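thought: user wants a sequence for this fold. calling inverse folding tool.
action: design(structure=
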């Protein structure tokens, strides 16, 4: 039901965007933008999904304990299959499913595999928030044109509060085991009963994560810097999309605005960020190119998620067999 609702919200937001384009006589320009695109830049920008997948797979390898080292090919298959599952499962659960598959393949224990995936997604999110903070700072320094993208100063300062607070909270959760314990205990007391058990399991995985990853600060630093670099590649790809559409935004402006648009797409309202991300792109890039071009950019940003899923489709059957074996074993499924 939640998935159907999210699809409905995505379609509703897209309908509003395209209705406004049509109202201002710009809807026909959307097709023209793609027809007149630079095909070399388009091919190069779409091909960026390959190095992005490879670097993400390499990061997953770096997170593995030596005794359960994951092969590079297997890591790539896990990343691609997770991309498929993220399209059909809520709340990026495809990434959590990686923990099942790693445990079943004997790479590590269930608790450690879950903590590894939790840490991977936590560093990924914190890296995106880091780029968002950079973006908000650049917008403030660069002046009126960039601030116009927010429509009002109040909206800008609300974004500063939400992004800065989220980054601070996430950093404390990863950096301080005592704070993490306080956070989860408080959350379990305040949360409805049906969520209390889930928070308890997440707290256990988080504690396991602290015990494992803080053993080597060098590894922690390497994974963190790799995550920031991976997000740089994501933002570079979006800038290449802009060039492919024969539009223009300064590179620093793109580094500032695109992570904020991606963050809007992560709100748990829509299907794979479709709709909220598109609306944010139209809003944020308004000072640099027309709404029709921004709408085309939104479609290309959606393709960023579809292409890895298409690449992972041939491997889904293999991992579904693993999921079946897990579901037939009640103790394993519960773990």
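)
observation: tool returned 335 residues.
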């Amino acid at each position: 039901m939640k998935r159907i609702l999210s699809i409905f919200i995505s379609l509703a937001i897209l309908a509003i965007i395209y209705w406004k384009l049509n109202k201002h006589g710009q809807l026909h320009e959307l097709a023209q933008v793609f027809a007149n695109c630079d095909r070399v830049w388009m091919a190069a920008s779409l091909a960026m999904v390959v190095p992005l997948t490879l670097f993400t797979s390499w990061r997953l390898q770096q997170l593995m304990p030596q005794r359960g080292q994951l092969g590079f090919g297997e890591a790539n298959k896990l990343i691609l299959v997770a991309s498929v599952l993220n399209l059909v499962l809520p709340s990026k659960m495809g990434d959590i499913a990686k923990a099942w598959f790693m445990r079943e393949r004997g790479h590590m224990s269930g608790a450690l595999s879950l903590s590894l995936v939790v840490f991977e997604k936590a560093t990924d999110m914190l890296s995106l928030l880091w780029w968002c903070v950079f973006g908000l700072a650049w917008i403030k320094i660069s002046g009126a044109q960039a601030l116009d993208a927010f429509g009002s100063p109040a909206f800008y300062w609300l974004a500063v509060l939400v992004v800065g607070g989220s980054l601070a909270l996430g950093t404390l959760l990863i950096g301080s085991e005592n704070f993490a314990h306080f956070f989860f205990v408080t959350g379990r007391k305040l949360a409805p009963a049906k969520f209390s058990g889930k928070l308890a399991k997440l707290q256990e995985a988080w504690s396991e994560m602290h015990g494992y990853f803080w053993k080597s600060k060098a590894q922690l630093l390497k994974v963190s810097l790799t995550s920031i670099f991976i997000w740089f590649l994501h933002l570079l790809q979006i800038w290449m999309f802009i060039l492919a559409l024969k539009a223009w935004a300064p590179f620093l402006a793109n580094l500032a605005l695109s992570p904020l648009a991606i963050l809007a797409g992560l709100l748990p309202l829509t299907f794979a960020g479709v709709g909220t991300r598109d609306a944010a792109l139209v809003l944020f890039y308004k000072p640099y190119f027309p709404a029709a071009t921004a709408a085309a950019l939104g479609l290309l940003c959606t393709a960023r998620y579809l292409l890895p899923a298409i690449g992972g489709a041939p491997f889904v059957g293999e991992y579904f067999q693993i999921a079946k074996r897990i579901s037939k074993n009640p103790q394993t499924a519960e773990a």
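thought: summarizing for user.
answer: Here is the designed sequence. The mean pLDDT is 85.
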